Amino acid sequence: MRVLAPAKLNLCLYLGPRRGDGLHELCSLFEPIALADRIEVSDGDRDEVVCEGLDGDNLARRALELLRERGWRAPPKRIEIDKRIPVAAGLGGGSADAAAVLRLARGEVDEVAELASRLGADVPSQVDPRFALVVGAGERIEPLGEPAEHAFVLLPAEGGLSTANVFAEADRLGLGRSPEELESIAVRLRAATDSGASPLSYTELLVNDLEPAALSLRPEVGVALGALRDVGAAASLVTGSGPTAFGLFADRGGADEAVRALRAEWPAAVASVPRPRP
Question: Are 231 and 261 in contact (CB under 8 A)?
Answer without folding.
Answer: yes
